[in-house]
Amino acid sequence: MRNVWRLGIVLALASGLVMAQEPVSAVGTKAPKDAASVEVLWPGGAPGGVGTTYDDVPKLYCYPAAGDGPHTAVIVLPGGGYTHLVMEQEGAAEARWLNQHGVSAYVLVYRLSPRYLYPAAMQDGLQAVRFVRSHAAEWKLRPDAIGVWGFSAGGHLAGYLATVQPMDEPKTLPDGAKKKLSAHPDFAILNYARLTIDKNIPGTFGMESITGPNASQELIDAISPVKHVTAGSSPSFIYATEFDEKVNSLNATAFYDALQRVGVPAELHVFEQGPHGTHMGVDQPKFPELAVFPVLLENWMKVHGWM
Fold first, then answer.
1. pTM above 0.85, yes or no
2. Smallest Cα–Cα separation from 172: which of 125, 122, 135, 224?
3. Which domains does the chain have, with CATH numbers?
4. Cα dist. 62→8, 78, 82, 145, 292 in Å?
5. pLDDT at residue 175, rounded to an integer
């Protein structure tokens, strides 16, 4: 793991950023286990950045799949309410599972509240998709098979990425050429994600952790994925539990309904049992029915040729 941090420090220093000798997160974020390398997302500094500490430097922990490829790639977005990141159970564990199925994975450290509000995390998510796509040839990836997988707040971010219509931005590729690269993911996996900010759905009104207090309706609508679903939104696999005490399962059904209305392929699984934060369902002995989740996801990805 020390080698991973050394590489991150070298990359940051090479880009003109100054990081501590031992990177420290003020919000308790810890590096995930077993990553092969780490990539700094914004070599020249993140837009709107207010410092150069660990929490100011969005980065990808890289888990490349074995073999010649080209591989599907998935950017994993840990949850944590936009105030911290659950890097192991909602990041590295999924990355290792994806690797076992021939998929390369990249766990994203995005900027958090209260140091950063909207749109910082969204900018980091969009840049992550562009960044991975820009390295498709070098990293033996399919540029048309780059997805996102988010949990809770990370699921909200994944839903945002799946529905926002970003402008393609010129990107300097590793060979020095410039090309417009899309930040739109080719598919999205959404685990107990907040996907609508509707006062009629319990527990879903407002997201002060990224909007700040007294947010305008315009800002609330801007970060509500369900309001931005179009026929161009990403095909989605949606997972929720009926008794989730933090993110009501109506988030999942509302998003599924919106996708269905415009003809976007989607698969929805709402399990009766299970609280918020059940990860991949395989570490929940009190709720054994959830353990089927990886099989369902594997089948869905195979149907679409992503696994």
1. yes
2. 135
3. 58-303 (3.40.50.1820)
4. 11, 14, 21, 17, 26
5. 54
